[in-house]
Design a protein that fits this description.
493 residues; alpha/beta; six-stranded mixed sheet; 15 helices; 30% helix; globular
């Protein structure tokens, strides 16, 4: 029997739970029992309170009132909040300023075994998750998908009695997604208590026996899977938001240097990016013309995010390569801000780094200035446009809410609006639908398709979900793994 399979007959019961969130809103669970043999999924829209319940049952959140009985002592918990905690710890321990080289972070094997040392189990988990080749890599060199693998392996190392997995499949490539599905299925079949927190109904594994629906921070309904999913009311709650016929018009008062229309937006020649002995990208040449929309595809760790960060100027090796942006040779005297003013960016790393105490409205406004936070006084027109985008993404009632109080999915919606608010010539979208529920995912894809059809912005789009690509995308850059190691690059136009 593999070392990641184990058994439990534990249960959990929550009664009369109340946890104040704001003056007018509380997390509320009247009665909820998780019994041996049951496997649960919590579903609900962005901001519904799923992640808060995940924190509650895992022990990361203490209820204000009520009781939780028979909670297992050893609970494995994977979430975006755990990812943020790990990022903050690694940032605190960054010794780059005291070294003559870049500190790449704690090796993956040390992070996975931080609380439980077991080399045999580490190797078994690494093989299943496809992460054997990254065990000696520093944390800061990991892609989003590789970081999710690390968190999963870390949660499983202690052989917990219960697993609480908040969006465990987000950021994973197809092969790893399938492997993680199989691993979770094996655990459930062996009697391990699992609670999945999901935005996509398509990710309900066959072994899930019960479903709980969360809305407005209340456990609205729970019961056997078939009975609950058959209810018409549940489907009604997931109807698509209709988009307006026109999008908010850009700010004509914003003084930007014009973006050349007769030059490629992006032109790269023989790009190479490496760290120590690890080569991430080798020999890639790529050109993006105005009006083209590109999907950038490939497995976790192949270099997709690295490539996009070279374009945005956020990668330290951006100036060591032959890159032209908007007709300007990188390193020819242009400032990073002269480049960024033509780019809108959505990425997991930007969201994780956006930790300033700021309101939802100001997060969108910051897109006009390409800053994390707002340090310039916005015009009345900019404020008005940001409010229009808040209405468009149905978050206008959170205009003055601090972003730290919003869910991961709601923050992602704000980040998308922030990228689009200035109508940039180039939109870089690295897993933009990550963390979004079905309603918002459909709305964002329709919105991006509408923007793509208008022709004002060119899209560079990364996703591991084939269904997440807008219809306007016709070009593909694919990273193809080679038998001898490394990746080849294939362009389809």
């Amino acid at each position: 029997m593999p070392p990641y399979i184990y058994r439990t007959t534990l249960s959990m019961k929550l009664s009369n739970i109340t946890h104040p969130l704001t003056k007018t809103l509380s997390l509320s669970i009247e009665q909820w029992s998780l019994k041996p043999g049951e496997q649960w999924a919590l579903v609900g829209s962005n901001g519904s309170g799923k992640s808060l319940i995940g924190q509650l049952i895992s022990g990361d959140l203490t209820p204000g009132e009520g009781t939780i009985c028979e909670r297992p002592a050893n609970i494995g918990y994977v979430s975006f909040e755990k990812q943020q905690e790990l990022l903050e710890a690694e940032r605190y321990n960054d010794d780059t300023d005291f070294m003559d080289k870049v500190d790449t972070g704690t090796p993956v094997r040390d992070l996975v075994q931080q609380e439980e040392q077991d080399e045999a189990r580490l190797q078994a988990l690494s093989k299943v998750l496809g992460m054997t080749d990254i065990l000696d890599r520093g944390f800061r060199l990991l892609s989003t998908g590789e970081t999710r693998k690390l968190l999963l392996a870390r949660a499983l190392m202690s052989q917990p009695d219960m697993l609480v997995l908040d969006e465990p499949f987000d950021g994973l490539d197809a092969a790893t997604h399938k492997a993680v599905e199989q691993m979770i299925s094996n655990l459930m079949q062996d009697g391990v208590m699992v609670v999945l927190l999901l935005n996509r109904f398509s990710e309900l594994l066959p072994e899930i026996t019960h479903v709980a629906y969360v809305q407005h921070c209340t456990l609205l309904a729970c019961g056997p899977r078939q009975a609950l999913l058959a209810e018409g009311a549940l489907q009604t709650l997931h109807q698509f938001h209709q988009l307006p016929d026109t999008l908010p018009v850009g700010d004509s008062t914003q003084k930007l240097n014009p973006s050349p229309t007769d030059q490629p937006l992006v032109k790269m020649k023989n790009i190479r990016v490496s760290y120590a002995e690890k080569t991430i990208i080798d020999g890639l040449s790529w050109q993006v013309d105005a009006g083209q929309h590109w999907a950038v595809r490939g497995p976790n760790g192949c270099g997709k995010t690295t490539l996009l960060s070279l374009v945005s100027g956020d990668h330290p090796q951006s100036y060591a390569n032959d890159i032209c942006l908007f007709g300007l040779q990188r390193g020819s005297g242009e400032s990073i801000w002269e480049i960024k003013q033509h780019i809108g960016l959505v990425s997991s790393s930007l969201q994780l780094n956006y930790r300033v105490p700021i309101s939802a409205l100001n997060m969108i406004i910051s897109g006009f200035f390409d800053t994390i936070g707002v340090y310039n006084k916005p015009s009345d027109r900019q404020k008005s446009l940001a409010m229009e985008w808040l209405h468009l993404i149905h978050l206008e009632h959170h205009a003055n809410t601090p972003i730290a109080q919003l869910s991961y999915g709601q923050q992602r919606m704000l980040l998308i609006a922030r990228a689009m608010v200035k109508h940039p010539p180039l939109l870089i979208l690295d897993e933009p639908c990550q963390g979004l529920d079905e309603i918002n995912r459909q709305m964002v894809l329709a919105l991006l398709d509408q923007i793509g059809q208008l022709g004002e912005s060119t899209l560079l789009f990364v996703s591991h979900h084939e269904e997440d690509y807008p219809n306007c995308i016709a070009n593909r850059l694919e990273f193809v793994a080679q038998p001898t190691g490394g990746f080849a690059y294939r362009q389809i136009e």
